[in-house]
Amino acid sequence: MNQINVDGLPDQVIHALETMIQTLREEYKNQQHEKYAPKESQPLPTVRGKVIGSLSRRDIYADGR
Questions:
Q1: Residue 6 in contact with residue 14, Cβ under 8 Å?
Q2: pTM (two decimals)
């Protein structure tokens, strides 16, 4: 849409709409660049530790059957 019908609206309202539209254009332009910007890959966090006891897939999924 390239046009908005503002017939019958006071000049103050028309000016406010123009300002709001310009602000929205600037905000959307900034959001669009951030949304599609490539993200830097980061290493996954790791925690040092040791296994205590044993756990099998059957133990984990025994409730599901």
A1: yes
A2: 0.45
pLDDT in tens, the chain (65 residues): 688 899 999 999 999 999 999 998 888 887 666 666 677 888 888 888 887 888 888 888 877 65
- Please state, in angstroms and rounded to a whole number, the distance separating the CA atoms of residues 44 and 1: 45
CB 4 within 8 A of CB 16: no
DSSP secondary structure, 1-65, as one string? ------TT--HHHHHHHHHHHHHHHHHHHHHHHHHHSPPPP-PPP-------S---HHHHHGGG-
Task: Give dist(CA 2, CA 11) in Å, integer.
Answer: 20
